[in-house]
Amino acid sequence: MKITLLGTGTSQGVPVIGCSCEVCRSVDYRDKRLRVSVHLQVDGKSIIIDSGPDFRQQVLRERIRTLDALVFTHEHKDHTAGLDDIRAYNFSQHKDMPLYGEERVLEQLKREFSYIFSGIQYPGIPRVELHPITEEPFDVEGIRFTPIRVKHYKLPVLGYRVGDFTYITDANYISEEEKEKVRGSKVVVLNALRQEPHISHFSLQEAVDLLEDLQPERAYLTHISHLLGQHREVELTLPDFIRLGYDGLQFEV
Ligand SMILES: [Zn+2]
Ligand SMILES: [Zn+2]
Ligand SMILES: [Zn+2]
């Protein structure tokens, strides 16, 4: 399985519009963070988790020519705003795009993209096929996804384990029971917003503590704010098995 981090930034991205802090002014390409998303290439299938506002730019950058399905973690705009751009795949692949998400998440997509679901097949609108999921494992094009329930302050969000890879974003709580589903993963991607605690995201220290408990072989942090600090400097403070993710990072699991 080949994984590509399409975006590793928090909801505003990095740099932040109008900000002149040292992170936002950094010339290090690893300090340029689009909104979070990840691409999985597994058994000949191409699957993306979340389609944020930078979706178009991300799939062009990584030359993702085919897309078999989109899976959503939750309904926040930084994870869904780019949905309209799946039209390109509708045209090139001549099929509807399967979307996987919890009922609540799919309902929110219906509200935010009402023209897609109006029943009026206006030429050129995105064509989708909805697949409601629960906390039970499900298959996407024959690939097994195991949901990991996490909390984003009060909002229930799903992380996913696919084989030995686990992807969790927008969390600041995971139960002991759900941790068991993650254990044994070789690589974990986990959100870490900033140095200071936050109401709905793990801070850097909270993410490090959780990863030290989960003990994957490698871990990458994502959903990063400009308040975390510069990539180069923050990495020096981390245990060896934990690295900061950056946009375009690829690895095999
Ligand atoms: Zn988010
Ligand atoms: Zn800044
Ligand atoms: Zn969120």
TrEMBL record:
Residues 35-223 form the Metallo-beta-lactamase domain. InterPro entries: Metallo-B-lactamas (IPR001279), RibonucZ/Hydroxyglut_hydro (IPR036866). It holds the Pfam family Lactamase_B_2. SMART domains: Lactamase_B (SM00849). This is MBL fold metallo-hydrolase. The lineage of its organism: Bacteria, Pseudomonadati, Bacteroidota, Cytophagia, Cytophagales.
